Each structure stands twice: as C-alpha cells, then as structure tokens.
C-alpha cells in the first residue's frame, strides 16, 4: 500500500524528502527522550529509525529509504573527516606505536575468535572466514559523536580516536584477503596473490594518495584566509563541505583511467584528507574549523543514525526466505565471539604496551559499535556468494542493529568510568 498519490519519478524524490523530514524530527526528539532516561542519544536515534523502518515496510514504501543513501555517505564522510582532524602528529608521537600494536592485536583476535566460534557450531569455512574479517570493523560514527558531545579528554580518548581510524584500514585489508581465500575455497581454484593482497593494498594506498592531494589543496586555500576576515567562519565551513563532498564522491564512484579503475575507501579517503588539513594549518585554525563543521553536521548526524536503524529493517525485510533458526544461532555466536575478541584483544594489546589502566579496562568496550564499513563488506559478500552471501548479510544486519543499539551505551559507560567526560 502506497500512501502517496504522486507517481512520477520527480514525485518519488519529494516523497523521499518528506521521509527525510520525518526522520530528522523524530530522531531529534527520540534522542532527547533517551538522554532523559540517562541513555545515549545515539541509541534513541537508532531505536526511532527501527520503528520508522517497520512502519515504512508495513506501508509498502520502504524502498524510499534507498533514495537517501547519499545522506549516509555524506555523514560517513564528515565522521571520517572529523576523526582525521583530531589526529595531530604532535599528539600521535606520544601514542603512535601503542595505537598500531593495539589495533592489530584486537583486530586479529576479533577475527580469530569469530572464525573459530563459527567453525565450532558447524558453519562452513568460507562463511566463517568472511564473517571473521567483517568482525574486525568498528563503526567510528557513534564513537566520534559521543567523544565530541561529552568533550571527552584523557588517555582513553587519545588512544580511541586514532585507533578507530586505523581499525578500518586493517579491516579492509583483512577482508580483501579473506574474501579471496573464501572465493577460492568455494570455486575450488588456486589462490591469487594479486586478488588476495595487492587489490586491498591498492585501495588503501590510493585512498591515502587522494586524501593527501585533496587535503593539501584545501589547506593551501585555508592558509590564504585572513584571520581578520569577518566571513572567516563561512569560508572555513564552505571549504570543509567542499573537501568532504569531493572525497565522498570520488570514493563512491571511483576514478577511471581508461580501462583501469581506482577503488577508494569511503572511510580512509576523507579521514586522510582531515589528517592532512589539520597538520598543514595552525592549531587555532584547525580548532575554528572543527567548531563550525560540528554545528553544521549535527542535523546530518541525527539523520544518519535514524536512517541507519530504518535501513537495517528495510534491508532485513527484503530477505524473507531464510532459515531463521540457523541465522539466529550464527548471529548470536558472531556477536559474542566478536565482542570477546575485541575486549580481550584490546586488553592484551594494552598490557603489552603498558597502557594506562583506563585503556586496558575500557578500550575494548568502546570498540563494539559496528555499522557502515561492516555492512559494505557484507553487501560485497552477498554479491559474490549467492545464498551464503545472503546469510552473511542478514547476520551482519542483525548484529549491526544489536551493536548500534547497545554499543553507544558501552562507549558512554567507558568514558564515564574513565572520568574523561567534561560536560
């Protein structure tokens, strides 16, 4: 049943705009209500999105959500840019080695725990390999939004922000390797070193190069702005939006050079751009840019998280011919195994690096949220693996819903216990 009377293609665009308006307003009030209940506002946004997704599905207009995918891409770009903007080299000098070691250990343990946990319950090796790789990914959005909202400062926050950015690079590389191995096992063919290692490495390197180019170009423009210019804030905001839009667009359409196509990461490209800008301009200007961008992106973030909840329900409803008992078991093991690997891996890495006690105790809990990058991997797996791919997608969709609902609660709890919230 379609409640809208309009039927043309242009009308569909405005129907989607109407849905977007409701998403923004309902998400806003859900977030405020959840905060009154002492729960993270992000959990409120996602919960309202789930309800809205159910309503849209029942009304038969869930497909309108697909027209808003560009909003999610833009929001993810601003989130990645914001993480990069926090990574000043003078701060990273103190914790760079610590971040690298902890990132690799927790990612590896999350993958291994998930892989072996699924194998124990009888899941096939190809599916287990892919879900193991997907388990490494951490959603930067709720972490970034909560650290900004609470103005968190301290040892845990200093490690958390750069680690989340690097975590996705590790996840992309590991997923590329695992996907190649799983494809070979499925088809009975030999492993290709190029497909297994070179392709994901190229994606990472290309993302870094494009992020550097855009970042340096933008920082040159910023450095020309006069500090006494009364329109300085508007210029900073306009330049930031331009930079994010360019990197998001390039990451999603790729770069075509003849028959050769360059793939870019939608997380790493804007993040590297943010790192480049913040380290190529003064600390004062970097701070001023962060403030104006944060004010602009607040409504976008509300839409992003509310839309995420709705997208999960709509996507899940489109795959109904599945063995729900089997899916439930796989999903439960995936959620528990990944959480165990993240928490234990973070603790082990922090112990090896003699990290602060707050990092050892609470970092793993902060790394539980999972969304965008993991879903991108799951959709790729669905394309490559047919029925098994659908199983992977549904498992990740349900797990993402659980992690996104309860993950922000863990992040807020950890920041509170670490005494790093400065509201």
Question: How is this structure best described in words?
Answer:
It is built from 14 helices and 2 strands, in the order H-H-H-H-H-H-H-H-H-E-E-H-H-H-H-H. The chain is mainly α and 423 residues long. It has a single domain, classed as Up-down Bundle (Na+/H+ antiporter like fold), CATH 1.20.1530.20. It has a two-stranded antiparallel ribbon. It is globular and about 65 Å long.
Topology:
Blueprint: H1 9-36, H2 41-58, H3 69-85, H4 89-120, H5 125-134, H6 140-149, H7 155-187, H8 193-224, H9 232-253, E1 255-257, E2 260-262, H10 268-278, H11 283-317, H12 324-352, H13 357-366, H14 372-417
Antiparallel strand pairs: 1-2
Helix pairs in contact: 1-2, 1-11, 2-11, 2-14, 3-6, 3-9, 3-10, 3-11, 4-5, 4-7, 4-12, 5-7, 5-14, 6-7, 6-14, 7-8, 7-13, 7-14, 8-9, 8-10, 9-11, 11-14, 12-13, 12-14, 13-14
How does CATH name the architecture? Up-down Bundle
Secondary-structure element order, as H and E?
HHHHHHHHHEEHHHHH
Average the pLDDT over all residues and give the rounded result.
Answer: 80
Q: Tally the helices: what do you get?
A: 14
In the predicted model, the low-confidence regions spanning at least 5 consecutive residues are none
Number of strands: 2
Strands ordered across the widest β-sheet: 1-2
- Could you name the CATH topology? Na+/H+ antiporter like fold
Strand content: under 5%
Shape: globular
Terminal residue distance: 47 Å
CATH class: Mainly Alpha
How many domains? The number is 1
- Label the structural class: mainly alpha
Q: Rg to the nearest angstrom?
A: 21 Å
Give helix % range: over 70%
**Biggest sheet details:** 2 strands, antiparallel
């Amino acid at each position: 049943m379609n409640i809208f009377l309009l039927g043309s293609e242009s009308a569909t665009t405005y129907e989607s705009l109407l849905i977007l308006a409701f998403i923004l307003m309902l998400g806003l009030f859900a977030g405020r209500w959840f905060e009154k209940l002492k729960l993270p506002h992000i959990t409120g946004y996602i919960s309202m999105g789930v309800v809205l997704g159910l309503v849209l599905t029942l009304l038969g207009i869930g497909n309108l959500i697909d027209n808003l995918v560009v909003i999610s891409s833009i929001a993810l770009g601003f989130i990645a840019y914001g993480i990069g903007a926090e990574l000043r080299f003078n701060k990273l000098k103190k914790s760079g080695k610590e971040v690298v070691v902890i990132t690799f250990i927790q990612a590896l343990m999350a993958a291994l725990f998930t892989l072996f946990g699924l194998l124990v319950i009888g899941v096939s090796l190809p599916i287990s390999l892919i879900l193991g790789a997907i388990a490494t990914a951490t959603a930067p959005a709720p972490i970034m939004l909560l650290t900004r909202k609470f103005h968190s400062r301290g040892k845990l926050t200093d490690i958390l922000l750069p680690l989340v950015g690097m975590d996705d690079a590790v996840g992309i590389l590991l997923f590329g390797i695992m996907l190649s191995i799983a494809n070979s096992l499925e088809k009975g063919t030999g492993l290709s070193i190029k497909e297994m290692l070179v392709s994901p490495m190229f994606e990472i390197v290309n993302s870094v190069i494009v992020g550097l180019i855009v970042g340096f170009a933008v920082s040159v423009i910023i450095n020309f702005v006069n500090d006494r210019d009364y329109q300085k804030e508007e210029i900073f905001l306009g330049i930031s939006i331009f930079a994010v839009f360019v990197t998001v667009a390039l990451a999603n359409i790729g770069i075509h050079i003849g028959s050769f196509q360059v793939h870019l990461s939608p997380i790493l490209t804007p993040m590297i751009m943010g790192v480049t800008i913040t380290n190529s301009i003064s600390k004062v200007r970097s701070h001023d840019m962060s403030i104006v961008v944060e004010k602009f992106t607040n409504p976008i973030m509300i839409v992003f998280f509310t839309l995420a909840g709705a997208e999960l329900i709509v996507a899940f409803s489109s795959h109904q011919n599945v063995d729900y008992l089997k899916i439930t078991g796989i999903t439960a093991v995936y959620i528990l195994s990944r959480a165990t690997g993240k928490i234990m891996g973070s603790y082990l890495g922090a112990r090896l690096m003699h990290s602060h006690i707050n990092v050892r105790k609470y970092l793993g809990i902060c790394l539980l949220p999972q969304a965008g990058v993991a879903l991108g991997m799951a959709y790729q797996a669905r394309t490559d693996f047919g029925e098994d791919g659908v199983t992977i997608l549904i498992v990740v969709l349900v797990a993402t819903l659980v992690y996104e609902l309860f993950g922000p609660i863990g992040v807020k709890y950890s920041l509170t216990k670490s005494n790093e919230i400065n509201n």
